[in-house]
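FORM 7B: Structural annotation worksheet

SECTION A. Query
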Amino acid sequence: MRTSLKTLVRPNRARLTVPAALLGTLAASLVATPSEADPLTSQRDQRSSWRGLPAAPAPTTHTVASGESVWSIATSHGLRPADVLAWNGLDWAGVIRPGQVLKLTAPAAAAPTAPAATAMMSHTVVPGDTLTAVARRHGIELRALFEANGLGWSSVIYPGQTLNVPGATTAAAASSAPAPAPAAAGASHTVAPGDTLSGIAKKYGVTLAAVFEANGLGAGSVIYPGQAIAVPTSSAPPAPGASVAPAASVAGLDDEQIGNARLIIQIGRELGVSDRGVTIALATAMVESWMRNLDWGDRDSRGLYQQRPSTGWGSPAEVRDASRSIRAFYGGPSDPNGNRTQGLLDVDGWESMGFAQAAQAVQRSAFPDRYAAWEGAAHQWIAALG
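SECTION B. Predicted structure
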């Protein structure tokens, strides 16, 4: 019997046959775009494209609003207060005003130029100097001072350090800060961690003004561990022009209280706290301890701010360390207690609170209205001493 070719191949074709419905589905999937073939893939692609949108650029300037401080502006933009001060040619004692525009980035480096022969002078750092002040005193750009000494925006200088000053004229060099006045005959004190000028004066039984005069220091001066402080044998009246507030401008405060007030102001300046914050710190210390570093108080309260070891403010010795207790009151990123306690800078919206309300947010006193009674006096103290 003959078998046709058509008959021979029919069984094979039957085995390869695919249902028409399935064949249509496969064909459609082969020609469809990925988003048509898989809705989940489409959604993932869309989400990826959303995530890929460029982030808004960080602002390069900030216009100061009422109640703002360098510290609050810097932290709101994720910056260090010291950098914002340096970028704007300010120091810790600088004052900012509403409407003022602050730079939030470092100035662009100047285009490299061919080196030129430049006269090089030197400057010996004295207490209270800043790089900005040294550059201004010698009439040069801050960037030039950086380059001559291998420094940057975050560099720290110390008393006794020698800086190269490029391009300084003879007149500018002559007008640099005078050397400290010769110390009166007496003892020499080597600064230890935690020392303050008022504490040193008290230890040797001399006035704070005499220690200032013997070392060429002032209210804003900073001392460092290892530094030698001349201690006069007797307290001489300050020379004309010395940066010591006359007694009349701080009437009602004795030497111990003046020394503690200066320390509160000095540390506030170092931390970039606004004048209002410093006056709150001054008034609070007056209410809590008469601005004296007390070794007694209610229950275990001690020190300038009557901080209690039992509530996390530190050990008995730590709460009587005047410098540490002031920093703990201010709080913020440099709070020596970390997150154990809440300082003024840690209170949300403290600058818009009432004077007594802001102080009470830190102290939680049984008599919060007492703080407001010292607001006017605190403004007089900061005007006289800060």
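SECTION C. Observations
The radius of gyration is 34 Å. The longest helix spans residues 255-270.

SECTION D. Sign-off
Analyst initials: ____
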